TrEMBL record:
<keyword id="KW-0479">Metal-binding</keyword>
<dbReference type="InterPro" id="IPR058240">
    <property type="entry name" value="rSAM_sf"/>
</dbReference>
<protein>
    <submittedName>
        <fullName>Anaerobic ribonucleoside-triphosphate reductase activating protein</fullName>
    </submittedName>
</protein>
<dbReference type="GO" id="GO:0046872">
    <property type="term" value="F:metal ion binding"/>
</dbReference>
<keyword id="KW-0408">Iron</keyword>
<feature type="domain" description="Radical SAM core">
    <location>
        <begin position="31"/>
        <end position="241"/>
    </location>
</feature>
<keyword id="KW-0411">Iron-sulfur</keyword>
<dbReference type="InterPro" id="IPR013785">
    <property type="entry name" value="Aldolase_TIM"/>
</dbReference>
<dbReference type="InterPro" id="IPR012840">
    <property type="entry name" value="NrdG2"/>
</dbReference>
<dbReference type="GO" id="GO:0051539">
    <property type="term" value="F:4 iron, 4 sulfur cluster binding"/>
</dbReference>
<keyword id="KW-0004">4Fe-4S</keyword>
<dbReference type="Pfam" id="PF04055">
    <property type="entry name" value="Radical_SAM"/>
</dbReference>
<dbReference type="InterPro" id="IPR007197">
    <property type="entry name" value="rSAM"/>
</dbReference>
<keyword id="KW-0949">S-adenosyl-L-methionine</keyword>
<dbReference type="GO" id="GO:0003824">
    <property type="term" value="F:catalytic activity"/>
</dbReference>
<dbReference type="InterPro" id="IPR034457">
    <property type="entry name" value="Organic_radical-activating"/>
</dbReference>
Amino acid sequence: MPDGAPCVTSDQPQTAERLRVGGFTRLTTIDYPGELSAVVFCQGCPWRCRYCQNGDLLDSTAVESLIDWADIRAFLRGRVGLLDAVVFSGGEPTVQTALGAAMRETRALGYKIGLHTSGAYPERLRTLLPLIDWVGLDIKTLPEDYAALTGLPDSGERAWASLALLLEAGVNLEVRTTLMPGWTSDYLHVLSCTLAATGVRRYVLQICATQRALDPNLPGYSIMPRELVEAVDPLLFEHLDIRGM
């Protein structure tokens, strides 16, 4: 798939067995706040973000190293009562119409459902809301600046529409921003104030790691620049977390 090409998938719902899984973490304490979780990494993403660390998950047509949903189902059945939640991550999970079926099966086992998403498909996200307990949403930039990062012109509109949808629905939500090299304090101040004004209450700043970045020429930070951290007023949010100091 060429860089920046969208993932083309059917909008018809599919069975959980059709979920294309490119990776699986059996236990984590950091992917769903406060819960012991497993993470299902879904294959495929329509965007080509310059700092993406999961390049092996971008191609929706990849067949190597896919994990059968039946194997994940068997694992989860054996961990009932030991794990609290299952997080669907990626790639971009909502690119796959089998996601809803997989979430329903997982929820029926008694697990909480978490979702990591870029917000690329707001209408698909809307249909999944009854199945989701917590969302980690990446808001990458101000809407008008998305294309330079993702490679697609309407990506900003989609991401911010997903944010509005999640806020309106009252879903337990964490918004995360990865700090791009070259950002100024003024830019981050405007972005964070805009997010707070929309109703975001839990906000996370993440360092831009470039060791495995999709763009090999992207400069990175060895530590989070303090001037950027200080550009975000912690009083704007109920919870502000800095990852990478």
